[in-house]
Design a protein that fits this description.
InterPro entries: Kinase-like_dom_sf, Prot_kinase_dom, Ser_Thr_protein_kinase. This protein is an alpha+beta fold and 297 residues long. Helix content is 35%, strand content 18%.
């Protein structure tokens, strides 16, 4: 993107539908506390809480005069949103009254970015990771259907609908920021514990020749089938490729559990361990080093 992000309270809330009985617009509002925690509510009667809709504002720098970049991002987002529910909803546009810069108004996503949740996601099994991948791919398919590509897809632009919960099987994510940034030609190192099937899929997506990369529909078919068949008996899975993939994912889950157990054990304090400064007796150390050198020679 090419702007700054803020969060704000839209006092009136967004329009949902026309209320024929009250002869006015029905708007989405909620209650917001001092810690910006939001709860949907139709009531405006609260002495201790603010009322309105929590939104994200994307200020487009140097946009006081409408330009093609601004119009393109707006047009692409609106058209792509018609194709999928897995894009961050765009609610409208407004302007800063002081400098006349344009501001895009979007849904505020409570879970934060995928990047900010990685410290929790690394602990969960691969089935839950595959579910997150499914929602990301759905978002990409919506973009590709209008014949554009994201060009700046990274974990900071993937937003979690709610705070990540490792016990929840439905951690939905949304693709955001359909800016026109240039691609960065860096490939991060793939961790050793990543299943070979998945690592190979990643490398295909990284191919320098775009024509050799898998289409989003192929990725969805592969990842979704792995997720859908994850808990089945291996013998009951007909597709050999999916069967082998799930075997690798399950083995990776076992290794993940072993790593987790080791980390827990490493935090247990030994009865003779010291965690405060103390004087250490080093008498005789020089003699020991000298004897060691003599033996080496």
């Amino acid at each position: 993107g090419f702007g700054s992000i803020y969060k704000a309270i839209w006092a009136d809330g967004r329009i949902v539908k026309w209320d024929h009985e009250k002869n006015k617009w029905h708007r989405a509002i909620g209650l917001i506390d001092d810690n910006w925690k939001y709860k949907e509510s139709s009531s405006r009667n609260s002495n201790s809480l603010k009322t309105g809709l929590l939104v994200a504002l994307k200020r487009l720098n140097d946009s006081s005069k409408i330009n093609d970049k601004f119009l393109n991002e707006l047009k692409y987002h609106l058209n792509a949103f018609k194709m999928t529910d897995f894009l961050l909803p765009l609610l409208g546009i407004t302007r800063d009254p002081e400098n006349l810069e344009y501001i895009i108004v979007m849904n505020y996503v409570h879970g934060g970015s995928l990047r900010n949740n990685l410290h929790q996601i690394y602990r969960v099994n691969w089935k839950k990771r595959l579910f997150i991948l499914n929602s990301i791919i759905f978002g990409l398919i919506g973009i590709h259907r209008i014949r554009i590509v994201h060009k700046d897809l990274h974990s900071g632009n993937i937003l979690m609908c709610n705070a990540f919960n490792e016990n929840d099987d439905w951690n939905i994510s949304l693709v955001s920021d359909l800016g026109l940034s240039q691609p960065v030609r860096f490939r991060p190192q793939i961790a050793n514990h990543v299943p070979q099937f998945y690592a190979s899929l990643i490398k295909r997506c990284w191919d320098m020749d775009p024509s050799k990369r898998p289409k989003a529909t192929e990725l969805l078919n592969t990842i979704y089938n792995c997720w859908e068949n994850y808990d089945k008996n291996i013998e009951d899975i007909r597709d050999d490729k999916i069967k082998q993939a799930i075997i690798q994912f399950r083995n990776a889950d076992k290794k993940l559990q072993e790593i987790s157990d080791l980390k827990v054990q490493s935090t247990i304090q030994h009865s003779e361990a010291y965690f405060t400064s103390r004087v250490i007796n080093l008498s005789g150390l020089n003699d020991s080093i000298a004897k060691y050198k003599e033996n080496e020679e």
